[in-house]
């Protein structure tokens, strides 16, 4: 003991024995970590050494110079300029954008499917409930690859070829003369934006900001002064009126103003009809139905009375309808053996999109159901006892709590969609796995570089999404004392 | 009372009226329908829509099923038969009959040997039963479960019986060595500790020496083209020198520490047993099995891995990878919970990396990249590489599920285990894991089901699992060109049956394991 206390600082106490490296819990973890470190370094050295030897033997080296070389292959879906003379790097970027496109579309669609199915699974309607369980179980328990292939096969085999649209006795016709469903994909009109469009779009965004500010202000007023400001109708007005004004007035002032006036009249008329009749007719379902029909009738009367007047005045004052100048539509047309022009949504994109959406939707449905079930019935009853109306109970009490349960798994489902979109390679959709990990790999033979880049890309997306999810989780966390 | 009223009131009922049946609208099917199908305007619309949808579905699918042709040579043949019958639509289920073997076993597995994978599958059910229904099946049947991997390996891959048997014997012998060392006298144990310490020290030092040499080799081959490569080369050199001068003595120290460990903790026993296992497997198994086989040859026709295919391949991959990834996942989860920063860091990086990339890229790694990381001349077959990558993939996910279970345990459980004086291994094995695993069962089952579905992805790297068989040999044959509904429906069905049963089992097990209020 004395030696220990007397020993100068910095030198180990004499009582340290080597066996303490194993037997003393203070040092044992160091020993284990040391062994682990050695094992890791040895493993890395082993793997790295093999890599170097194998590469030398095959006469290869690690180099990313191929990214700048001409790719020499075509990509059938090009969100940005690309031709076969563009570089491998650009091909990878095109693929990356294609991945993001299909992931984005599938995420939105899957959310819609999932929320609808999840809510309907809790419905008190027996047949709907069973139907939704059927949907969830069928789609959850079959590999997504099979779904992708099934939908792709349907797109290829069951849809008519472009030839079927030709001639006098065509067996197929275009929907609304603008959509063609063929075995080469769906052809739809694509918008061509004029300068005016961007002004309109900016106005629309600004009005969204205005709505947000207005509602935030209303909430603040409610909490600070106890004033309940109506938000629904102002929101609706803010949403449509400025945009419509910008869209219509510059091109044809009188026509525009008249049109807006009709719209306002229409909305106000329908609203009044609905509320008045709602008060007159008792009963929940019947009253609602009658009011709805009456409101629709009112709307019809207003429009049919005023529209002819505008139609008569309008052309007298200015030429042509006003809306055309915002954007024009590029219509698909049958030329030669295929449709030309417009937007071509390929069968592979549709197969991937819908298969991912339906498959993941089944999982999201389960998350949504679990989230709603997680909120105990007492919450609804307590809110009701406080005198809240049903839609307020939903908005203020149930949803905020349920979302806290639903959103984390929802985000991880979005991650799954992004990762599963790499199955595009099975149907020939040119996502990043198809370009960088597919054709580029085959053409250049640079397996290590391409696969590392591919992994890096997916890893970046995953880590970014988890990062935002953590921020979100921290913000949504219950504020406990 | 009643007497008094008998005079004043005209009529007093003395018996109860028999209960009358509820009104027709409040009983039976009508009430049920009013409650469950037409309880409001919205609900009624939904019901009608649902009925219409079901009607369309059945009206579309039923004639197709009903007219199904089960006996035809090719798709043209099948269409002819349908036309003869005058049916508008009809399925060609004949493809399933015609290509049943392909769908189930792939197109290379020898036809005369189909009984082997079938038997292995049937035995799988028996082997799984004691583990799945442990309350209802006697414990001694678990012995068969333990033997099953060897039996299945021999049945599916064939070859000499003695090889799997010898490996089994080696593992059992290792167990005996473990027991023996555990029960040894302290004096002998200290001698053993000395030997183990010596061997471990030398081994560690040798490993480090090799590693340092390898690092030096890498540093030389990086080249000196640019500043970046020069920097990399310098770093490798520095690491190599560091290992040489610092780690090799450290390795010897650790060996010396084990040597000093005269009390002989568990470590000596474990290291001895592992050492024995290595000796058995590396030097004894092959020659002994070969020698016995020369005397008493018991052999099945050997089938190479690349001949596996069809649904059998999905089953093999699914079962093998799930069983391998469970222990690995437990280790990773414990590592991630560990308070040793290095171990924790390694586990976190591994788990997050694997979870961040799609399985398909890992399969690409197995297909084209893994060979670069192996010593030249090693020849792993593709199925083994795929098993490695899928196991890594699912173990990362299972680790996260188990981590959730570990985190859900109240802290008091850890503290209680500590206060009982249990060491880490005992506490983990006896207190922590049983509870944590119980919590994580639903998650693990989800991962297992997901993994089994993901085995279809191997078709992308040109392996012929059931989807690969459909897309390749069946859809591209002249007989069954571009047939899709029938085959894909069949594939969906076989997956649905397995996945749905597993998820039902997991729900049942959850109810069984519930220890709170029944």
Properties at a glance:
heterodimer; A: 481 residues; mainly alpha; three-stranded antiparallel beta sheet; two-stranded antiparallel sheet; 15 helices; 68% helix; 5% strand; disordered N terminus; B: 518 residues; MetI-like fold; two-stranded antiparallel ribbon; 2 strands
Main β sheet profile of chain B: 2 strands, antiparallel
Q: Give the proportion of residues in helices of chain B.
A: over 70%
Helix and strand composition category of chain A: mainly alpha
Strand order of the largest sheet of chain B: 1-2
CATH class of the largest domain in chain B: Mainly Alpha
Series of secondary-structure elements of chain A, N-terminal to C-terminal: HHHHHHEEEHHHHEEEEHHHHH
Shape descriptor of chain B reads: globular
Give the low-confidence spans of chain B.
none
Number of strands of chain B: 2
**DSSP strand content of chain B:** under 5%
Overall 3D geometry of chain A?
globular
Mean pLDDT reading of chain B: 84
In the CATH hierarchy, what is the architecture of the largest domain in chain B at level 2? Orthogonal Bundle
Record field, number of beta strands of chain A: 7
Q: How would you name the oligomeric state of the polypeptide chains in this document?
A: heterodimer
Question: How many distinct helices of chain A?
Answer: 15
Spatial arrangement of strands, main beta sheet of chain A? 1-2-7
């Amino acid at each position: 003991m004395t030696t220990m206390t007397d020993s100068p600082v910095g030198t180990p106490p004499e009582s340290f024995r080597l066996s303490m490296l194993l037997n003393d819990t203070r040092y044992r973890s160091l020993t284990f970590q040391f062994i682990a470190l050695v094992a890791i370094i040895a493993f890395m050295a082993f793997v790295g050494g093999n890599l170097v030897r194998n590469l030398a033997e095959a006469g290869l080296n690690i180099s990313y110079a191929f990214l700048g070389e001409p790719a020499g292959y075509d990509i059938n879906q090009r969100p940005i300029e690309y031709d076969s003379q563009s570089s491998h790097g650009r091909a990878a970027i095109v693929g990356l954008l294609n991945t993001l496109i299909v992931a984005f579309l599938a995420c939105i669609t899957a959310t819609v499917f999932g929320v609808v199915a999840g809510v309907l699974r809790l419905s008190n309607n027996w047949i709907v409930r069973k139907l939704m369980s059927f949907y969830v179980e069928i789609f959850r328990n079959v590999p997504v690859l099979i779904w992708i292939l099934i939908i792709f096969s349907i797109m290829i085999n069951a849809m008519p070829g472009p030839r079927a649209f030709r001639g006098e006795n065509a067996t197929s016709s275009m929907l609304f003369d603008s959509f063609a469903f063929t075995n080469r994909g769906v052809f739809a009109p694509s918008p061509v934006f004029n300068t005016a469009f961007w002004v309109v779009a900016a106005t629309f965004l600004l009005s969204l900001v205005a709505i947000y500010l207005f509602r935030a202000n209303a909430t603040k007023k409610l909490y600070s002064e106890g004033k309940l400001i109506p938000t629904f109708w102002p929101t609706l007005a803010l949403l449509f009126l400025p945009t419509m004004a910008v869209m219509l007035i510059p091109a044809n002032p009188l026509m525009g103003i008249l049109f807006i006036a009709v719209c306002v009249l229409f909305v106000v008329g329908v609203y009044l009809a609905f509320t008045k009749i709602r008060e007159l007719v008792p009963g929940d379902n019947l009253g609602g139905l009658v009011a709805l029909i009456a409101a629709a009738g009112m709307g019809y009367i207003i429009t049919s009375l005023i529209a002819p007047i505008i139609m008569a005045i309008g052309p007298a004052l200015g030429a042509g309808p006003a809306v055309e100048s915002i954007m024009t539509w590029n219509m698909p047309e049958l030329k030669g053996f295929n449709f030309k022009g417009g937007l071509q949504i390929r069968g592979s994109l549709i197969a991937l999109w819908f298969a991912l959406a339906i498959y993941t939707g089944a999982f999201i449905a389960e998350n949504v159901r679990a989230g709603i079930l997680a909120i105990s019935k007492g919450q609804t009853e307590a809110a009701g006892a406080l005198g809240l109306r049903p839609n307020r109970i939903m908005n203020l009490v149930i949803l905020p709590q349920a979302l806290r349960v639903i959103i984390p798994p929802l985000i991880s489902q979005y991650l799954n969609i992004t990762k599963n979109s790499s199955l595009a390679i099975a149907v020939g959709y040119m996502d990043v796995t198809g370009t960088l990990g597919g054709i580029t790999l085959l053409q250049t033979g640079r397996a290590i570089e391409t696969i590392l880049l591919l992994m890096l890309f997916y890893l970046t997306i995953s880590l970014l999404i988890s990062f935002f999810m953590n921020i979100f989780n921290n913000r949504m966390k219950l504020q406990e004392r | 009372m009643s007497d008094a009223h008998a005079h004043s009131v005209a009529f007093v009922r003395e018996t109860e009226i028999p209960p009358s049946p509820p009104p027709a609208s409040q009983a039976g099917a009508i009430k049920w329908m009013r409650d469950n199908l037409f309880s409001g305007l919205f609900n009624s619309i939904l019901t009608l829509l649902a009925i219409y949808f079901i009607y369309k579905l059945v009206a579309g699918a039923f004639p197709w099923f009903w007219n199904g042709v089960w006996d035809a040579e090719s798709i043209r043949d099948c269409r002819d038969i349908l036309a003869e019958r005058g049916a508008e639509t009809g399925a060609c289920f004949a493809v399933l009959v015609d290509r049943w073997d392909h769908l189930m076993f792939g197109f290379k597995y020898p036809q005369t040997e189909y009984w082997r994978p079938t038997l292995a599958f049937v035995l799988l059910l028996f082997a799984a039963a004691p583990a799945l229904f442990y309350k209802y099946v006697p414990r001694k049947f678990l012995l068969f479960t333990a033997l099953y991997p060897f039996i299945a390996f021999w049945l599916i891959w064939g070859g000499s019986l003695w090889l799997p048997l010898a490996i089994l014997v080696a593992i059992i012998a290792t167990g005996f060595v473990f027991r023996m060392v555990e029960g040894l006298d302290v004096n002998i144990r200290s001698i053993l500790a000395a030997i183990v310490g010596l061997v471990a020290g030398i081994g560690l030092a040798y490993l480090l020496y090799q590693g340092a040499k390898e690092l030096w080799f890498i540093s030389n081959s990086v080249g000196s083209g640019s500043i970046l490569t020069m920097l990399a080369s310098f770093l490798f050199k520095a690491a190599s020198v560091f290992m040489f001068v610092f780690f090799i003595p450290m390795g010897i120290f650790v060996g010396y520490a084990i040597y000093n460990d005269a009390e002989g903790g568990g470590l000596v026993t474990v290291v001895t047993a592992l050492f024995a296992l290595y000796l058995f497997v590396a030097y004894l198994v092959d020659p002994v099995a070969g020698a016995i086989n020369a005397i008493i040859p018991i052999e099945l026709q050997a089938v190479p891995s690349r001949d596996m295919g069809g649904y059998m391949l999905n089953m093999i991959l699914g079962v093998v990878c799930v069983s391998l990834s469970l222990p690995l996942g437990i280790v990773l989860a414990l590592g991630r919970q560990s308070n040793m920063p290095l171990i924790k860091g390694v586990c976190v990086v591994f788990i997050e990396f694997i979870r961040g990339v799609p399985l398909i890229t890992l399969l690409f790694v197995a297909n084209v990249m893994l060979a670069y990381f192996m010593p030249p001349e090693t020849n792993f077959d593709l199925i083994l590489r795929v098993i490695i990558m899928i196991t890594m993939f699912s173990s990362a996910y299972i680790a996260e599920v188990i981590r959730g279970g570990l985190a859900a345990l109240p802290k008091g459980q850890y503290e209680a285990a500590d206060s009982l004086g249990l060491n880490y291994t005992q506490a983990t094995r006896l207190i922590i894991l049983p509870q944590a695993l119980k919590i994580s069962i639903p998650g693990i089952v989800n991962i297992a089901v997901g993994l089994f579905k993901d085995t279809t992805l191997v078709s992308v790297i040109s392996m012929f699992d059931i989807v690969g068989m459909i897309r390749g040999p069946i859809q591209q044959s002249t007989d069954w060109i571009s047939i899709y509904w029938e085959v894909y429906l069949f594939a969906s069905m076989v997956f649905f049956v397995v996945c749905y049963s597993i998820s039902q089992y997991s729900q049942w097990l959850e109810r069984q394991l519930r220890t709170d209020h029944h």
